[in-house]
Amino acid sequence: MSLQFITDKEILAHVSKRPGETKIGECISFSKNHEEFNKLLNDNTFKYVLLGIPEDIGVLANYGRPGASEAWQFFLSKFLNIQSNKFFDGHQLFIAGEIFTNDLMQLKNNFLNDKSRLSKIVEELDNRVEAVIFKICEANKIPVIIGGGHNNAYPIIKAVSKSLKQKISVANIDPHADLRNTQARHSGNAFSFAYQEGYINKYIVFGLHEGYNNTHILEQFDNKTRKYITYENCLQSVVHIRYQANEINAFLQDENICFEFDCDSIAGFPASAETLSGFTPNEARSIIMTMAANTKIRSFHLSEFAPNINPQIAESAAKLLANMVADFIKINSNYHNQIQKELFDLN
């Protein structure tokens, strides 16, 4: 299994200590080796498993801009500095580490202009991601995956589907449907491959940009098992984005869900396909909170964050990403609602 573990030193290097405070990085559990990883997987204390995928190979194979390989470390630097308090104490999750990609990233550098070779490297990456995600899901945990291109949605969906022994449905917050042809693997056809191999039941894209999806892609939607809600439609609506996002759950109903969130969908966010027209940071958080309330979510993947695209706001973007993950875990675990009830009762 291609999993690179994390050390105490690496964790604490990200933490800014302050007297009288406890940060998530000072109390979170993490696996240092295979034995400890398996032990944590079998511990019922934990429901969520954080995993990084430091790569941008699939993005490059899809003519995109590199940088998604840096997302995991930027995310950790902010997430581990969240205060551990009654609102979020991190007791339900542990850090697995990251998919080992050093050799693949070095190989990538030898074939930057060879899309065919890059696609073959993506296929090897698929195998590594699938193996780790399957093991996490088999232990009845929810993987929370940070980084890499959206190519990683395919092995995630495949692993979740195999662990449940049934097709999985997908909610994708994304300007692009990523249903390009399957001639070669890259970040633009993760869902095409998942469909082709029979892993997807229903698929909905929320925030799809009307001008950036070709006719071949749009013709694949039938509103019965495949549906999109365009960003332009969201703009025209007078209803708050959180209520619009409820359409996702209404469409998927009681399906087991892989929840995909492409950072390209946030306006001004440093991502592989950065856009100035997209959801605001607060709208992104509202969408995640709405989706997180669904108890049938089996994985959560944040992809395409590329800090190098806009170094001036990379730190702030990483902080937003950390908040989005905390939002998901708090709402999905019902922890936030319990705290709010306690505060209400006190008043």
Give a description of the structure.
The protein has 347 residues and is α/β, with parallel strands linked by helices. The model has no long low-confidence stretch (mean pLDDT 94). Helix 7 (115-138) runs parallel beside helix 8 (153-164), helix 12 (241-252) runs parallel beside helix 13 and helix 13 runs parallel beside helix 14. It is 43% helix and 16% strand. It has helices at 8-13, 24-27, 34-41, 57-61, 71-79, 102-109, 115-138, 153-164, 190-196, 215-218, 231-236, 241-252, 281-292, 314-332, 335-346, and strands at 3-4, 29-30, 48-52, 93-99, 142-146, 168-173, 200-208, 226-230, 257-262, 297-303. Strand 9 (257-262), helix 13 and strand 10 (297-303) form a beta-alpha-beta unit. Strands 1, 2, 3, 4, 5, 6, 7, 8, 9 and 10 form a ten-stranded mixed beta sheet that branches. The protein starts with a strand and ends with a helix.
Quote the beta fraction.
Answer: 15-25%
Distance between the termini: 51 Å
For the residues shown, what is the average pLDDT?
Answer: 94
Low-pLDDT segments: none
Largest sheet: 10 strands, mixed
Total strands: 10
Overall outline? globular
Write the layout of secondary structure elements.
Elements: E1 3-4, H1 8-13, H2 24-27, E2 29-30, H3 34-41, E3 48-52, H4 57-61, H5 71-79, E4 93-99, H6 102-109, H7 115-138, E5 142-146, H8 153-164, E6 168-173, H9 190-196, E7 200-208, H10 215-218, E8 226-230, H11 231-236, H12 241-252, E9 257-262, H13 281-292, E10 297-303, H14 314-332, H15 335-346
Parallel strand pairs: 2-4, 3-4, 3-5, 5-10, 6-7, 6-9, 7-8, 9-10
Antiparallel strand pairs: 1-4
